[in-house]
Write a structure and sequence with these properties.
By secondary structure, the protein is of the alpha/beta class. 46% of the residues lie in helices and 17% in strands.
Length: 891
């Protein structure tokens, strides 16, 4: 018989910490803490297998599973000395989700389950705390009503706020017992009104409904959205943890809190967290009350604080990672409710990894696996320009670093709508809820007037790498009127504000920002570790000297793609390009190209200087010529306007000539048309001019005492004969320039592998090419038969229906496109053993694609300058992952 339910309690657990696949992260953590002798309330975990069975069977649990749940419940009742549904000693439990990977706030929790009208009265008598009993009951009805019965939270909130106001209470903790009884009465009436039946009174029925609801929350919209964002598989499922309640709301000797063993925002080794006296756990994370820093616990409950420090330090040493923990103190006694590896910002991830290597807790190989490549983006976030004049509006808590400005929006839906118009938005809320995840996803920053450093907004923003300021209590937010009031000013939706997430400051307007320095501090030390581990070299795609300088700053080891056509679009060059295109004779074309030559030469000189000693791969002209001309429709409108004026004959003649050339160059499928090497073959003078500019620049910079390593790349060649034609031009022009200059430079000529046929005949191509660089943008386009410019019309539908798992233009298709790359690698190296191999498409900076490039034996990847650190880390992680896989195969 399969085991589906795992008990923990009394210092012993049936599960273990390495059973995250089965118990989920929370359940595995509870089992591990129990086995380690940490004070944990008893309970049981229903495995992730049950979640999958639940969905496969249409929302039902089998008799075998039900039997195991009842057996575990009996053990729990015995361990707690209480019984579910008892009048004398009622057992109250929490029901919480817990997937393998942490998904903070994305799924549902129910506290105080087991209360009913009889149990609440007995609880009030037994504890002598009437207020505590009725406060627990109203919380339970509200959570159960929202999660299980699907009644909107705002309906409960309206009742609560109305009765609180009637009672004259400023704080939730000041609401007297008679008012709490009234809230319960109105909550139950709301349930009857909305559902047409009474609130369930039987605790066993409550438990069954709650378990089903928590399993059901695996597929709520916010959980699905979070999994998409974090690439978590839908097939994993969640576990459900049923645990005896301990109460932080039994008076001023009780409390609840959450914390981290290190600062999750900065990574500093400091005890970090918050707590609330006389409260339950949801109060801390929901942002309803602004909590107290955890160090204050040492003043009010020193023994509990000392015990908490000792336990959490032990947990960090045990797990060898920063821990995110939850605790409750019930009448002076500490209980640990959860520990897990904590979510952290990119800055914190890098610092913690580097520090733990220095402390001897982990190895460099483990350290590089502790940081998600995408987290490095956060370290490259801008900071406020210290010279800028600012108008400070408010001070909140620094929940997640960075500096951003954007237009104010007051709802997640508005954030999505306005961000869809390519506008930067800052989501402003009293507090965020899990349902806001889609708005947080598109916002550049998040601001809340309530909540602490461990509130939902703070935790989720840190995980997403978003700038976030929370608990800015001086700000008054009217979400209905869509206004923000502070310091005598009122700002409305669409006004600009600036957030500084590292200090918690909020500023009026758009404050300028500057880029940080990635070459010093913890990031530099961490990247040095990664560089020692990786095999793949990392280059950058750069077209102008400024990009090349940025690439070197980020650690690029050369330029893997310089797109020469980008140099042609500059205002002072475009007229010469257009004159060349409009020329009727080769002589006229050469005359126009001669005007372009100095511009190209100067650009190449700048790139060679910036890359002193590093290789620079220059792709000859790739796009079709019509891209350099005005659009046909625009020309027709201009002509119509000129003709209507009737006094611009010469200008009309020029426009008509231009229109005729645009129409002559028109292609039905330009991406498969007259472009790339096809242009160089039909207009060899274009290739000649570009090669001359490259070699003259190389010779000039070499004379300055710098080392130059030009690599000329032929685009779109699908056959060896095309490649051979262009290589002859490269070699001939090189010889001419070297003779004229009286000096020479070493250079290479290679092929951009972007036509599927080139991959299939790679052995023949390698007889001519000295290197291959995979242009995976076009290779993907031609392999799938998708137009990159038009795929947006159906890609989202393909993704939502599971026809494609990922967008192949963002994440390399390892089976199809990758299969062609493997073929090219094997065939190419069979013909030329020292063939240099790289990738220069957008995939060159995507971590899973980098790992694939490592696996098939490429020499380098190339990506945009700002993704160079990400590719460097991904390359190191590929080495560690492959070594680990090899060890697994030999065991």
């Amino acid at each position: 018989m399969s085991k589906y339910v795992y008990f923990f309690g009394g210092g012993k657990a049936e599960g273990k910490g390495d059973m995250k696949d089965t118990l989920g992260g929370k359940g595995a953590g509870l089992a591990e803490m129990t086995n380690a002798g940490v004070p944990v309330p008893p309970g049981f975990t229903i495995s992730t297998d049950v979640c999958r069975i639940f969905y496969d069977s249409g929302g039902k649990l089998t008799d075998d599973i039900q039997k195991q749940i009842q057996e575990a419940l009996a053990k729990l009742e015995a361990a707690a000395g209480q019984k579910l549904g008892s009048r004398e000693k009622p057992l109250l439990v929490s029901v919480r989700s817990g997937a393998k990977f942490s998904m903070p706030g994305m799924m549902d929790t129910i506290l105080n389950l087991g209360l009913n009208d009889a149990a609440v009265e007995a609880m009030a008598v037994r504890t002598g705390a009437e207020r505590f009993a009725w406060d627990s009951y109203r919380r339970f009805i509200q959570m159960f009503g929202n999660v299980v019965l699907q009644i909107e939270k705002k309906d409960f909130d309206e009742i609560f706020e109305h009765v609180k106001e009637q009672a004259g209470a400023k704080l939730d903790t000041e609401i007297p017992p008679p008012s709490l009884r009234e809230i319960v009465k109105r909550y139950k009436a709301l349930v009857k009104e909305k559902k047409g039946s009474d609130f369930p009174d039987d605790p066993r029925q409550q438990l069954q409904l709650a378990i089903n609801a928590v399993f059901g929350s695996w597929n709520n919209p916010r959980a699905i959205h979070y999994r998409r964002m974090n690439k978590i598989s839908d097939a994993l499922g969640t576990a459900v943890n049923v645990q005896a309640m301990v109460f932080g709301n039994m008076g001023n000797t009780s409390g609840t809190g959450v914390g981290f063993t290190r600062n999750p925002s900065t990574g500093e080794k400091e005890f970090y967290g918050e707590f609330l006296l006389n409260a339950q756990g949801e109060d801390v994370v929901a942002g309803i009350r602004t909590p107290t820093p955890i160090h204050e616990l040492d003043r009010v409950m020193p023994d509990c604080y000392k015990q908490l420090r000792e336990i959490t330090e032990r947990l960090e040493r045990h797990y060898r990672d920063m821990q995110d923990f939850e605790f409750t103190i019930q009448e002076g006694r500490l209980y640990m409710l959860q520990t897990r590896n904590g979510k952290r910002t990119g800055k914190a991830a890098v610092k913690i990894a580097a520090d733990m290597v220095r402390e001897g807790l982990i190895t460099p190989e483990e350290a590089v696996m502790r940081v998600e490549p995408s987290q490095l983006d956060q370290l490259l976030h801008p900071i406020l320009d210290p010279k800028a004049k600012v108008k400070e509006l408010a001070q909140g808590l620094p929940a997640s670093p960075g500096a951003v400005n954007g237009r104010i929006v007051f709802s997640a839906d508005d954030a999505v709508r306005i961000a869809g118009d390519k506008q930067r938005v800052v989501l402003v809320r009293k507090e965020t809820a899990p349902d806001d995840i889609h708005g947080m996803d598109v916002a550049v920053g998040i601001l809340t007037s309530r909540g602490g450093m461990t509130s939902h907004a703070a935790v989720v923003a840190r995980g997403m790498g978003k700038c976030c300021v929370v608990g800015a209590e001086s700000i008054k937010i009217d979400e209905a009127a869509k206004t923000l009031s502070v310091a005598g000013k009122t700002l409305k939706e669409g006004d600009y504000i600036t957030l500084e997430g590292s200090t918690g400051k909020v500023f009026e307007g758009q404050v300028p920002t500057i880029e940080p320095d990635p070459t010093s501090g913890d990031l530099a030390a961490f990247m040095e570790m990664a560089d020692k581990i990786r095999r793949l070299r990392v280059r950058a795609n750069a077209d102008i000297p400024r990009d090349a300088e940025a690439a070197r700053k980020f650690g690029a080891e050369g330029i893997g793609l310089c797109r020469t056509e980008h140099m042609f679009f500059a205002e002072d060059r475009l007229p010469h390009v257009q004159r060349m295109i409009l020329s009727d004779t080769e002589a006229d074309r050469r005359q126009a190209l001669a005007k372009l030559l100095p511009f190209q030469r100067s650009d190449f000189e700048g790139l060679f200087r910036a890359m002193d000693g590093l290789p620079v791969t220059i792709r000859l002209l790739d796009p079709p010529l019509h891209e350099f001309l005005p659009k046909r429709e625009e020309l027709m409108v201009e002509l119509a306007t000129l003709r209507a004026k009737g006094d611009a004959a010469k200008e009309i003649e020029e426009k008509e000539k231009l229109l005729a050339r645009v129409e002559a160059l028109h292609e039905f499928n330009p991406m498969l048309g007259h472009r790339g090497c096809r242009l160089g073959i039909t207009y060899p003078e274009i290739s000649e001019m570009q090669c001359r500019a490259i070699f003259e620049a190389a010779c000039n910079v070499q004379k300055e005492g710098k080392t130059v390593k030009p690599e000329i790349m032929i685009p779109l060649a699908g056959s060896p004969t095309e490649l051979d034609d262009q290589k002859h031009i490269v070699d001939r022009v090189a010889a001419e320039v070297f003779k004229e200059k009286g000096s020479s430079v070493e250079y290479m000529t290679g092929a951009m592998i972007e036509v599927p046929r080139a991959a299939v005949v790679a052995d023949k191509m390698a007889e001519i090419a000295e290197f291959f660089s995979f242009g995976t943008n076009d290779l993907t386009q031609m392999c799938f038969g998708f137009s990159r410019d038009d795929a947006g019309k159906f890609i989202l539908e393909y993704l939502s229906r599971g026809i494609l798992k990922v967008d192949p233009f963002q994440v390399l298709d390892q089976e199809g496109v990758g299969g062609l790359m493997k073929t090219a690698v094997e065939k190419g190296r069979s013909a030329r053993k020292n063939l240099k191999l790289g990738i220069c498409g957008e995939h060159g900076g995507e971590p899973s694609s980098v790992e694939f490039c490592h696996a098939i034996g490429l020499d380098y990847v190339s990506c945009s300058p700002y993704r160079v650190p990400i590719a460097r880390l991904a390359a190191a992680q590929a080495v560690v992952a492959h070594k680990s896989a090899e060890r697994g195969r030999t065991v």
